[in-house]
Amino acid sequence: MAVTNRDMANAVRALSMDAVEAAKSGHVGLPLGMADAATVLFRKFLKFDPADPNWADRDRFVLSAGHGSMLIYSLLHLTGYKSVSRDDIRNFRQLGAKTPGHPENFVTPGVETTTGPLGQGIATAVGMAMAERHLNARFGDDLVDHHTYVIAGDGCLMEGISQEAITLAGHLKLNKLIVLFDDNSVTIDGGTDLSDNTDQCARFEASGWITKKVDGHDEKSVEAALTWAKKQKKPVMLAVKTIIGYGAPKIAGTGKAHGGPYGAEEIAGIRENIGWKYPPFEVPAAIEKAWAKAGERSKKEHEAWNKRLAGSEHKGEFNAAMTGRLPKNIAKAIIKHKKAVVAGGEKKATRQWSGAALEVLTHLVPEMIGGSADLTGSNNTKTSHTDPITPKNWAGRYVHYGVREHGMAAAMNGMALHGGILPYSGTFLVFADYSRGAIRLGALMGTRVVHVMTHDSIGLGEDGPTHQPVEHVASLRAMPNMLVFRPADGVETAECWELAIANETGPSVMALTRQGVAPARTTHTDDNLSAKGAYVLSDCKGKAQATILATGSEVEIALAAQEMLAEDGIAARVVSCPCLELFEQQHGNYRKSVLGSAPRVAVEAGVRFGWDRWIGEDGGFVGMSSFGASAPYTDLYKKFGITVQAVAAEVKKRIA
Amino acid sequence: MAVTNRDMANAVRALSMDAVEAAKSGHVGLPLGMADAATVLFRKFLKFDPADPNWADRDRFVLSAGHGSMLIYSLLHLTGYKSVSRDDIRNFRQLGAKTPGHPENFVTPGVETTTGPLGQGIATAVGMAMAERHLNARFGDDLVDHHTYVIAGDGCLMEGISQEAITLAGHLKLNKLIVLFDDNSVTIDGGTDLSDNTDQCARFEASGWITKKVDGHDEKSVEAALTWAKKQKKPVMLAVKTIIGYGAPKIAGTGKAHGGPYGAEEIAGIRENIGWKYPPFEVPAAIEKAWAKAGERSKKEHEAWNKRLAGSEHKGEFNAAMTGRLPKNIAKAIIKHKKAVVAGGEKKATRQWSGAALEVLTHLVPEMIGGSADLTGSNNTKTSHTDPITPKNWAGRYVHYGVREHGMAAAMNGMALHGGILPYSGTFLVFADYSRGAIRLGALMGTRVVHVMTHDSIGLGEDGPTHQPVEHVASLRAMPNMLVFRPADGVETAECWELAIANETGPSVMALTRQGVAPARTTHTDDNLSAKGAYVLSDCKGKAQATILATGSEVEIALAAQEMLAEDGIAARVVSCPCLELFEQQHGNYRKSVLGSAPRVAVEAGVRFGWDRWIGEDGGFVGMSSFGASAPYTDLYKKFGITVQAVAAEVKKRIA
């Protein structure tokens, strides 16, 4: 008997449903519905080599509808990825298995990105497709020439982030991006018509995509559409009509088929309906063999690519880029830059100092690709080394992301995951709230991306409380696996940038001022003093009677308070804290030596929340306890009492 | 000389540009471009009475492109709102003026909602239009029958939230919603073609809107379009083609015209080009008079409405709804419900207890309108008193928001701002990250909305770290003017709901478990013990050697630890902390009496961030310090060490 596409798809269906039943949770509706189409994709189109999940020029496959994770686990397992064993499938959603509830790239080789929060996958895939186009322009067809495929569900397309992704991809004419929309007309609450009437094809076309409707249960229809899609000059969306929970006698095609174990009766019914006569977790040898063969389809192509790389003049550069190795001369360049900053002694906004540091770094690191969500001039993210990326100039290194903070953050994740790119981008700090979903996913995945976030406090002034971050630095510090930098001046900004791009295992945030700040560091040190997160910036003579902790624009206030206190004969030490996460990582002895044993007062133009860790319950805090207001920033600092006098008073209170 | 629409529009232009020049910041590009169209709207269509900005049946006008705030300030001032004086316009963006950088409804009567973060306005307006339809169904055409108008910019339409708003409005056939898209083809970075190619009309039509292209500088074209728009049976988007910075000789129509003061030369050029011969901040009497007349246009309609209300059988009910007065019998009903919960002694998830409390409350409070972002069954937000709202059943009280967390939160703000509705809705807590932009705006505006956020920790189990909040409770607690509730059992859940709906001046978050929790409150009290935010749930015999603080599902662990410690002869007190913001508001003596002076240990299945405020730098904390994992929740609590033993050990460490 010849093994058909349907037979192979049924193996995916069977493993998926058996796994969900065993786990007593999970979502089998999508794997049952999309099995036929995904089988065509993996059998005939996707370029991949299970023996080398990191092959740089593989096609990327993103299951944006991450709840259908058993689809991808079944496919990885059947095509021969070692990362997913039959036991992993048996242990779906159990502690330690390579088969978590939603696909996690840091757990399961072969999974390209972590999905589950809807819409993130498609937006991340846009970043992958952008990375491919840029690296293609940099290294040529020989080394970089692949597609990015996405399976997205109704939920993905209802999330706002999908619109940002779709419009960006359409604008950039990402012709190697192919989205298979699992058009099953069902969400958790019921039929999509409970909450949506969007004509998705028309919507995509409105933003420069090409679309086609496809019968997702007809192998030929899917194959013809994918063949056609690869020839288009624009991104393609295939509306793949499927029946969710395909085969389930009672619930197929309904909201009930979305998730949860179906129960023995329905499962038996599916087995009957799809003609699957085998016990749970068993796949007949002929079908296993057909799948193994599918997994070997691109082997020769991979070997040819290996040869091309071995013979390429770009080999060294390409490998450096793909492994994310930074040039060794960065440290020296930063030292040189810091010297010039100290010598200049200028008062500038840290966003401007960030622009200056980027001018140095983007010159040295060709992998750095910048951008901004339509605030280029304000974020100072564009340098002379970064020409705009356009559909006609993929060699550019600057993305005009448009007013799309969430899509931007997700695209950065995608570029970092693709490899070969070190993305950074800019917006106002307050709009971290818009992009937080993608920032978090970056922290979870450990993507090296840098979020430049300027206008970082009431110091932005007239734009008022809608634009003034108050709780944002705190809320970002609360997130695991992320470094939040808030440098005080030009020197610290350069140091923090050096640390941010060296932070290979997670995102970094650069919180930067709109307003000018006086130099805090007036003598040069080769050492990166920010590397320990906090350090004694200005010690006092004799034993400190108080320690003043400050970050960013408030370091200036702390230093002035120190001086004012000195005039009253009070000895206070000033500690600058550009990155409290790094400080937390230091040895306790170092932390104690910096903090001292005197009473502590912190000053930061944000909320106290989180600061008690460093100043204690009885410590003093000068900052915000409400939203801000619209006025020139000097008026606001007075109005909200973030002043030299206030800091000095808090110190005095504690040493009386 | 007869005063023309153009003359009146030029007054708006002049005041706007003079104000921005004086403030040396702000955005005059939009007011210059949209002045003609907005003048037509305010002169001939908008139903409003400057003498009574709170007239319940006024049309709502939302300037979604909030940076163009001088447009609305000029219009409010010229039409006769007392809230905006000429001096306020002279003091644009200065401390204490009624003219902040972006429109703030809590500062300036006549401003319907706070805008600035792009896309929020259009999404909030959808909520207003929903409120209008529902209240129309409840109270009839006599009392509720108005339009909602929006001016939105390119930036608003690029934000993902706009897609959620547009698709929701299209689905609901909100025919009384009319969006004027300021189609000026420019954003801050330059032409929109730098980052977007979307055919906005096609995009809106794909989701059930009707659209028309309009010449924004042709009074007749705008008037005809608005007349036509009011007759449609679907929401209408008018693509109003304008020239940004209209009149500016050098920069009109370019990215430079978006914001910032234009400088004396350009301003003089505009005066010349539009034929405005008057000094800064001066408007000729004839034009002032024409505007004053426009402001009085709806007076008669307002008087007629007043009469209809005075004679209406619904008068009492309508006024109660619009003022947000809650029925007095709530307290009794909650007490009765709490008694039954205690008597039942059941172990249930707090999301289930929330559903039970909602069953009581939605019965008593007809203003409560529920919903969920496609997680109805999981969020337990639907009750027997809340039928779904559909385009054919506006009397319903439950919104299937679709997978649109951000649009949902903004729509709730809009309903609350409209008045007559007390909205609540549900999603998973982790997706607070998706809706945070709108949650924050609600906190800033002080809207009474309740965000039900279930699956509030690793306790959700198998779905894994993408779905497990770890830092979310902390990040929400960091936000000013919001109450974050995390109740421990059925009694606390009922108490927290009582507090949440009584919280008239800001949003509340209900963080609720997926998993079952044992009753913490085993004896009934009439008093709402959660009202003080934290209280002694279980005291020890004799002097406490330690205080254990806990919230939500971890209260159970704290109580078991107390017992375990007692067996070792250690006296520990357990404090339940369902709302730390309320606890913070209590008198210091109460706080001290609850916390005691013994060493403290807190247990919460989230990050420590923020807890040092309550346990001190040396306090013990049992919780999370990383992202979670995918497994059954009992395995996860063990893996991450959130156990009775761990709490007991932290206590012992501190009393050794």
UniProtKB/TrEMBL annotation, chains A, B:
<feature type="binding site">
    <location>
        <position position="258"/>
    </location>
    <ligand>
        <name>substrate</name>
    </ligand>
</feature>
<feature type="site" description="Important for catalytic activity">
    <location>
        <position position="258"/>
    </location>
</feature>
<dbReference type="Pfam" id="PF00456">
    <property type="entry name" value="Transketolase_N"/>
</dbReference>
<feature type="binding site">
    <location>
        <position position="184"/>
    </location>
    <ligand>
        <name>Mg(2+)</name>
    </ligand>
</feature>
<keyword id="KW-0479">Metal-binding</keyword>
<dbReference type="InterPro" id="IPR005475">
    <property type="entry name" value="Transketolase-like_Pyr-bd"/>
</dbReference>
<dbReference type="InterPro" id="IPR029061">
    <property type="entry name" value="THDP-binding"/>
</dbReference>
<feature type="binding site">
    <location>
        <position position="154"/>
    </location>
    <ligand>
        <name>Mg(2+)</name>
    </ligand>
</feature>
<feature type="binding site">
    <location>
        <position position="455"/>
    </location>
    <ligand>
        <name>substrate</name>
    </ligand>
</feature>
<dbReference type="Pfam" id="PF02779">
    <property type="entry name" value="Transket_pyr"/>
</dbReference>
<feature type="binding site">
    <location>
        <position position="186"/>
    </location>
    <ligand>
        <name>Mg(2+)</name>
    </ligand>
</feature>
<dbReference type="InterPro" id="IPR005478">
    <property type="entry name" value="Transketolase_bac-like"/>
</dbReference>
<keyword id="KW-0106">Calcium</keyword>
<dbReference type="InterPro" id="IPR020826">
    <property type="entry name" value="Transketolase_BS"/>
</dbReference>
<feature type="active site" description="Proton donor">
    <location>
        <position position="405"/>
    </location>
</feature>
<comment type="function">
    <text>Catalyzes the transfer of a two-carbon ketol group from a ketose donor to an aldose acceptor, via a covalent intermediate with the cofactor thiamine pyrophosphate.</text>
</comment>
<dbReference type="InterPro" id="IPR009014">
    <property type="entry name" value="Transketo_C/PFOR_II"/>
</dbReference>
<feature type="binding site">
    <location>
        <position position="27"/>
    </location>
    <ligand>
        <name>substrate</name>
    </ligand>
</feature>
<dbReference type="InterPro" id="IPR033247">
    <property type="entry name" value="Transketolase_fam"/>
</dbReference>
<dbReference type="InterPro" id="IPR055152">
    <property type="entry name" value="Transketolase-like_C_2"/>
</dbReference>
<feature type="site" description="Important for catalytic activity">
    <location>
        <position position="27"/>
    </location>
</feature>
<feature type="domain" description="Transketolase-like pyrimidine-binding">
    <location>
        <begin position="348"/>
        <end position="520"/>
    </location>
</feature>
<feature type="binding site">
    <location>
        <position position="351"/>
    </location>
    <ligand>
        <name>substrate</name>
    </ligand>
</feature>
<feature type="binding site">
    <location>
        <position position="155"/>
    </location>
    <ligand>
        <name>thiamine diphosphate</name>
    </ligand>
</feature>
<dbReference type="GO" id="GO:0004802">
    <property type="term" value="F:transketolase activity"/>
</dbReference>
<protein>
    <recommendedName>
        <fullName>Transketolase</fullName>
        <ecNumber>2.2.1.1</ecNumber>
    </recommendedName>
</protein>
<dbReference type="GO" id="GO:0046872">
    <property type="term" value="F:metal ion binding"/>
</dbReference>
<keyword id="KW-0460">Magnesium</keyword>
<feature type="binding site">
    <location>
        <position position="184"/>
    </location>
    <ligand>
        <name>thiamine diphosphate</name>
    </ligand>
</feature>
<feature type="binding site">
    <location>
        <position position="514"/>
    </location>
    <ligand>
        <name>substrate</name>
    </ligand>
</feature>
<feature type="binding site">
    <location>
        <position position="67"/>
    </location>
    <ligand>
        <name>thiamine diphosphate</name>
    </ligand>
</feature>
<feature type="binding site">
    <location>
        <begin position="116"/>
        <end position="118"/>
    </location>
    <ligand>
        <name>thiamine diphosphate</name>
    </ligand>
</feature>
<dbReference type="InterPro" id="IPR005474">
    <property type="entry name" value="Transketolase_N"/>
</dbReference>
<keyword id="KW-0786">Thiamine pyrophosphate</keyword>
<keyword id="KW-0808">Transferase</keyword>
<feature type="binding site">
    <location>
        <position position="378"/>
    </location>
    <ligand>
        <name>substrate</name>
    </ligand>
</feature>
<dbReference type="GO" id="GO:0009052">
    <property type="term" value="P:pentose-phosphate shunt, non-oxidative branch"/>
</dbReference>
<comment type="subunit">
    <text>Homodimer.</text>
</comment>
<feature type="binding site">
    <location>
        <position position="258"/>
    </location>
    <ligand>
        <name>thiamine diphosphate</name>
    </ligand>
</feature>
<feature type="binding site">
    <location>
        <position position="431"/>
    </location>
    <ligand>
        <name>thiamine diphosphate</name>
    </ligand>
</feature>
<dbReference type="GO" id="GO:0005829">
    <property type="term" value="C:cytosol"/>
</dbReference>
<dbReference type="InterPro" id="IPR049557">
    <property type="entry name" value="Transketolase_CS"/>
</dbReference>
